[in-house]
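thought: fold this chain, then report.
action: predict
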Amino acid sequence: MKCAVIGAGAWGTALANVLTENGHDTAIWALELDVAESISATHENRRFLPGVALLPGLRAATDKAEVLDGAELVVLASPSHVLREVLKDCAGVTRADAAVVVATKGIERGTLALMTEVAEQELPGRPVVALSGPSFAAEVAARQPTAIVVASTDARAASHAQELFSSQSFRVYTHDDVIGVELGGALKNVIAVATGISDGLELGFNARAALITRGLAEMTRLGTRLGARAVTFAGLAGVGDLVLTCTGALSRNRAVGLEIGRGQTLADVLAGRQTVAEGVTTTESAFALAARESVEMPIVAAVHRVLFERQPARWALVELMTRDLRGEED
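observation:
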């Protein structure tokens, strides 16, 4: 099958490599000329996935029309804050019958739309599938065992994506709870920032475990309010991705929190990074979404105060520990 991947960050590159390895004719769109040239000429994404050998069959270009020409499958892997803008350029050059797989994790700032909703609005009439789960790009590209989930209200589209991506090292499950799968993949990044802050403050493993567990409760609370099923958050896109992102050394979101916990400002942390930490943008969106839905999310609120209201990190953690006492299921 002819496939196009839009977004040549680490995750988009890893997914493009999976498709190429599975025998599909795959091209990837890169915003940066040096990234496209690096992938095509040296079979390495030196900027975003250095040291990982990519398959020679993977092609890269900076022209969206060239990459999308004839593509039957379109994979979206651009950062959440630019996805809609990127898709506006893709609409006129994407096949009307192309399947769309959304690998971007986030909640759009302002509209509070999920990424599949953005894709449905900008590429109407095409089947849309959400792809999520515990998956560091470097490990996927290195063919280390990984299990993820694809979710769609169109069962045939989900099964088709499952077949295209599955390999000996990349196991794909299907799901029909799109809201739950998407929110799990987005909200876990906020909790990962919180655990990074805790680790930066050297508050210990007990605090980290508490944040992960109570963070899962917050994710589930908001998800079920929006129509997701609670059990989805016990799966790969929920607790699986949450544990990985909150504890793994390769987690960009945990790394941001870690530096903030050690005393750096958000501006300083972001200024020194080439890659996007989705948890920062998602904190704003999740905070606004919780307010809109009247859902209590104290960890999300605490991260929001630290990132955007200049509250000292240690004070935010103290406030979490001294909230009114309650039952665990409340």
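thought: worth noting. Residues 76 and 102 are 5 Å apart (CA to CA).
final: tokens above.
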